[in-house]
Every structure is written in structure tokens, then in C-alpha cells.
Amino acid sequence: MSSTEITxxxxxxxxxxxxxxxxxxxxxxVFYRKVLADYRINRFFDGIDMEKQVAKQKAFFTLAFGGxxxxxxxxxxxxxxxxxxMGLGNDxxxxxxxxxxxxxxxxxxxxxxxxxxxxxxxxxxxDVLSR
Length: 131
Ligand code: HEM
Prior knowledge:
Elements: H1 14-18, H2 20-36, H3 50-64, H4 76-85, H5 90-106, H6 111-122, H7 125-128
The structure holds protoporphyrin IX containing FE.
Protoporphyrin IX containing FE binds next to α3, α4 and α5.
């Protein structure tokens, strides 16, 4: 499904409405490019195998948007404990949220869908930051 076919039909999952696998794949790739270019947060990604990371994130976002479940990673709290020990906090989380919103906007995802994704991502803050 191309991004021009996105509808706001509430019968469809967020995954389908956003444009399915192609849209998720593109979004994750654009998103990581922004994250890795951001001096405020890129130190957290030092030594991380980004190919594996991108694949995990695609599976995770697909699942989170209500698409097919191919995510085999660990839970968000455990995945980020090491980073919290490195100083990961609200400002870093906000920077990631910024890149997520900018990515979806750049890909012409409709505003109401961006809001849904933002709400979903925001709901993980406590787990990601071990609060
Ligand atoms: C919307 C909030 C976030 C979500 C949904 C998210 C999701 C994920 C997922 C699914 C993984 C893979 C877990 C696994 O290994 O199985 C992961 C790992 C990781 N995340 Fe996040 N994350 C979020 C916020 C952040 C933030 C704010 C940072 C840093 C600025 C960050 C940096 C990382 C790093 C470096 C890893 C790899 C950790 C490692 O392999 O040791 N994440 N994240």
C-alpha cells in the first residue's frame, strides 16, 4: 500500500492505515538516520549493531501498530536498563520523540495518525526510563 492510499477508516489497524510494511520500514530507516546524526543522543548507540537494531525496531513498531507480530526482542524496560545507567533521561527521550514526529511528518503521514503514534511512543516513557 502506498502512502497516497492511507485512509482514516477506523476499521483498519494503525499499521494498515499508516501504509503497512513499506511505510514502517521507510519510517524506521529515516528515523535512525536522524537519531544517529543527533549529538544529544548518539553516544547511546556507540557499539550497537545498527542493522540488527533497525530490524528489531521495525518488528517492534509493526507489532505496536497492530500489524503481524514478528518481534522477538526483550521488553522495553530490560532493553534500556544499561542506558539508564549511562544517564538516559527525559531530555533524551524527548529528543527521540522529536525525531519520530519529524520523520512521520516528512513522510506525509496524516496528522491524526502522527498523534496516535506519538501517544503510543509516549506511553513507553516509564518503561524505557526505568521509572
Ligand atoms: C519511544 C521510545 C522507545 C522505544 C519504543 C524503543 C524501543 C527499543 C527496542 C524495541 C529495542 C530493542 C530491544 C532488544 O534488544 O530486544 C531498543 C533498544 C535500544 N534502544 Fe530504544 N526505544 C525507545 C527509546 C530509546 C531512547 C530514548 C534511546 C536513547 C536515546 C534508546 C536507545 C536504544 C539503544 C542504544 C538500544 C540498544 C540497547 C542494547 O542493545 O544494549 N531507545 N529500543
